[in-house]
UniProtKB/TrEMBL annotation:
This is Site-specific integrase. It comes from Bacteroides fragilis. Residues 159-333 form the Tyr recombinase domain. Belongs to the 'phage' integrase family. Keywords: DNA recombination, DNA-binding, Plasmid. The lineage of its organism: Bacteria, Pseudomonadati, Bacteroidota, Bacteroidia, Bacteroidales. Pfam families: Phage_int_SAM_5, Phage_integrase. One of its GO terms (molecular function) is DNA binding.
Length: 342
């Protein structure tokens, strides 16, 4: 029913309960007001779309919204797993929580809930970052006015970045696995040590990503995590050890490395580390830290390492600043020795 019909029916009802011709001025004003409303808003049946979405936000369960968006998103397997873990955690906290019911106080309460479950600070931060992504998506879709994260700070702790020393890397290089799958993991790990590529990029890396520039082999690819392009001089970096591995593996098409998953790779690497006498926590991501750390220690500038890692900002690369301090000390010692000889 549109507003014109409503006004006509209202006029008849007013007349039926005793409104006379003397009341015509009031009826006229009512009619004019109604017509003005029609002109500005159109038919009552055409409710403003954004208003409708905001009304939906009051009753749209946030966990359902997350699951729906995760299913439709183009995400890597590992990222989807993390996002689903966050959705499951939110469901455990409050499965009936509507989008518009999420407040800043709610976020602090959720943080306390995760602390009570024994989650580390950085684990909580990881889940909160995922939650923030879907809050922003709800705002973009018109389901929420503003972000509850405006009054909330995601806390994180700086962690020690494990990296292999030159000596430890050599122990991995010299290790000979018995199992073919262990050898596959080891070769992928070493390739990551020589190129700095993340596990996600190693999994989809193929020989098509190796191109010739100025008679030298280069890796050119778009990183899955950031979407940034990275260029790595495969023939030159670490004396071409990564190039040697790519030639050793005879797979002209498809991914160069056949890996089950990150968890399996980490188990294999921990077992190898234990066998060769390395007592620290070695994971696949240790390879990327090793790549950056050893290059900086060898005197490569932090801006060059930034480009090789594919970091947008040098600030991200400055997590390795302690290594550059060691490099500076080493260079100064060299200069002191050289001065003494003069």
């Amino acid at each position: 029913m549109n507003i014109e019909t409503i006004l006509a029916e209202l006029e008849l009802k007013l007349q039926s309960i005793g409104f006379t011709e003397g009341s015509s001025a009031m009826l006229l004003q009512l009619n004019i007001a109604g017509q003005n409303y029609i002109h500005s808003c159109g038919n009552l049946n055409m409710l403003n779309a954004s208003s409708a979405r905001l009304i939906d936000g009051h009753r749209y369960i946030f966990v359902e919204f997350m699951y729906n968006e995760i299913s439709n998103a183009s995400l890597s397997t590992n990222t989807k797993t993390l996002h689903r873990d966050t959705a499951r955690l939110l469901k455990e906290y409050n499965e009936s929580l509507a989008i518009r019911e999420i407040t800043t106080e709610c976020l602090y309460d959720l943080e306390f809930f995760m602390q009570a479950k024994g989650f580390a600070v950085n684990t909580i931060a990881r889940h909160m970052k995922v939650l923030k992504k879907y809050i922003n998506l709800a705002i973009k879709k018109g389901l929420l006015y503003q972000s509850p994260f405006i009054g909330y700070t995601i806390k994180s702790q700086e962690t020690h970045r494990e990296a292999l020393s030159e000596k430890e890397l050599k122990l991995f290089e010299e290790y000979i696995p018995v199992c073919p799958t262990d050898k596959e993991v080891l070769l992928a790990f070493l390739f990551s040590c020589y190129t700095g590529l993340r596990y996600s990029d190693i999994c989809c890396f193929s020989k098509r990503n190796i191109q010739v520039l100025n008679n030298k082999k280069w890796i050119i690819l778009w990183m899955k995590k950031t979407g940034n392009e990275v260029r790595i001089p495969l023939s030159t970096v670490f004396n071409g050890k990564g190039l040697a591995i790519s030639r050793e593996i005879k797979r002209p098409r498809g991914p160069l490395f056949k890996l089950r998953n990150n968890q399996h790779a980490n188990r294999v690497l921990k077992a190898i580390a234990k066998e060769i006498g390395i007592k620290r926590n070695v994971t696949f991501h240790t390879a990327r830290h090793t790549f950056a750390t050893l290059l900086l220690y060898r005197g490569v500038s932090i801006t060059t390492v930034q480009k090789l890692l594919g970091h947008r900002s040098v600030k991200t690369t400055q997590i390795y600043s302690a290594v550059t301090d060691l490099t500076i000390e080493r260079e100064l010692r060299k200069s002191n020795k050289a001065a003494q000889k003069c």
